[in-house]
């Protein structure tokens, strides 16, 4: 177990470039919800990342890798341990022919913009997903019939206790909103994307159309973590929730969005507890009405 001064000891041992004590996670999640993390460290190089993770593992300190916080519900008690955020070298991008090498910290929107500028098609679907490259690989994020597995060629990974590895697409065990990073606990450092030549104007048109569909259908004016539940087989979570009469249902300041019943939104000042209670209520009511148990897609972390 870590001692009383574990934070000072960790900082002295690892010498991180950038760190903060008691950092409110509500500043780092798209839900705008979440209590403080004991320690938040920005890591700028693969070496710094490995050093920090290895120290935490050996000292028995909980650690968590944060992307852009767009698929997360952090509990009100916050996180007892270390939150790591990739920065520095993890924000590099290089483009050679039809291949893009993208650091895990980059936003999907930024990579989609670079792809368009270089006349590379195939990444349009990701331009409106608000996550990072690393989070998108971890989740095998997707939209409008395409997902990361369609464009990822290889992934550079750090596996705590195992070291640095490169996995080809076929080794990534991509499935619906899942990848081997979830089952094996690897950290995505960088991705090689294989795209196809296209015309910049058409690529931008496609991105524009997909993003206006998003604005029309999704309550983007409120903080949320996107779709709360995974898509059940042969149906849609939003449809089942709407059919159960739960659109607009509220617990505290958390609400099943009127615009899209698959989203839970923060009306302002919602707590993680509000969201968790609303999720449980939706699961039970939908199950009672349709016999389908909705599985959360968002990841819940933290607690004392
Ligand atoms: C308005 C809105 C719309 C959305 N639309 C979509 C959509 O259309 N399709 C879709 O799939 N998702 C959608 N999402 C959900 C979310 O954007 C994706 O799941 C995204 O991939 C999460 O990336 P992130 O960087 O924010 O990860 P985070 O939320 O920070 O983390 C999610 C998980 O990924 C892990 N992780 C993050 N970075 C890494 C890394 N480098 N290596 C290993 N693990 C990592 C974290 O530890 C965590 O377990 C939406 C969310 C919002 C708010």
- The name CATH uses for the topology of the largest domain is Uridine Diphospho-n-acetylenolpyruvylglucosamine Reductase, domain 3
| Radius of gyration based on Cα positions | 20 Å
User: Please, how many helices?
Assistant: 8
Bound molecules: flavin-adenine dinucleotide
In short:
The chain is of the alpha+beta class and 304 residues long. 29% of the residues lie in helices and 30% in strands.
What is the topological layout?
Layout: H1 6-14, E1 18-24, E2 36-43, H2 46-59, E3 63-66, E4 72-86, E5 93-96, E6 99-103, H3 108-117, E7 120-121, H4 133-139, E8 142-143, E9 146-147, E10 152-159, E11 163-168, H5 180-184, E12 187-194, E13 196-197, H6 200-217, E14 224-227, H7 237-243, E15 250-251, E16 254-256, E17 263-266, H8 272-290, E18 299-303
Parallel strand pairs: 2-4, 3-4, 4-18
Antiparallel strand pairs: 1-2, 5-6, 6-12, 7-13, 8-9, 10-11, 10-12, 14-17, 15-16, 16-17
The structure holds flavin-adenine dinucleotide (FAD).
List keywords for this structure.
Uridine Diphospho-n-acetylenolpyruvylglucosamine Reductase, domain 1, single chain, 5-stranded antiparallel sheet, binds flavin-adenine dinucleotide, 5-stranded mixed sheet, Uridine Diphospho-n-acetylenolpyruvylglucosamine Reductase, domain 2, 304 residues, Uridine Diphospho-n-acetylenolpyruvylglucosamine Reductase, domain 3, alpha+beta, 3 domains, globular
Walk me through the structure.
By secondary structure, this protein is an alpha+beta fold. It folds into three domains: 6-88, Uridine Diphospho-n-acetylenolpyruvylglucosamine Reductase, domain 2 (2-Layer Sandwich), CATH 3.30.43; 92-215, Uridine Diphospho-n-acetylenolpyruvylglucosamine Reductase, domain 3, CATH 3.30.465; 219-303, Alpha-Beta Complex (Uridine Diphospho-n-acetylenolpyruvylglucosamine Reductase, domain 1). 29% of the residues lie in helices and 30% in strands. The chain contains eight helices and 18 strands. It has helices spanning 6-14, 46-59, 108-117, 133-139, 180-184, 200-217, 237-243, 272-290; strands spanning 18-24, 36-43, 63-66, 72-86, 93-96, 99-103, 120-121, 142-143, 146-147, 152-159, 163-168, 187-194, 196-197, 224-227, 250-251, 254-256, 263-266, 299-303. The strands form five sheets. Strands 1, 2, 3, 4 and 18 form a five-stranded mixed sheet that branches. The protein has a five-stranded antiparallel sheet with strand order 5-6-12-10-11, covered by helices on one side. Strands 14-17-16-15 form a four-stranded antiparallel sheet. Strand 15 and strand 16 (254-256) form a beta hairpin. The longest helix is centred in the C-terminal third of the chain and has 19 residues, at 272-290. The protein is globular. The model has no long low-confidence stretch (mean pLDDT 97). Bound molecules: flavin-adenine dinucleotide (FAD). Flavin-adenine dinucleotide binds next to strand 3, strand 4, helix 4, strand 8 and strand 12. Flavin-adenine dinucleotide is lined by residues 30, 65-72, 86, 104, 129-132, 134-136, 138-139, 141-143, 181, 187-188, 218, 220, 224-226, 299.
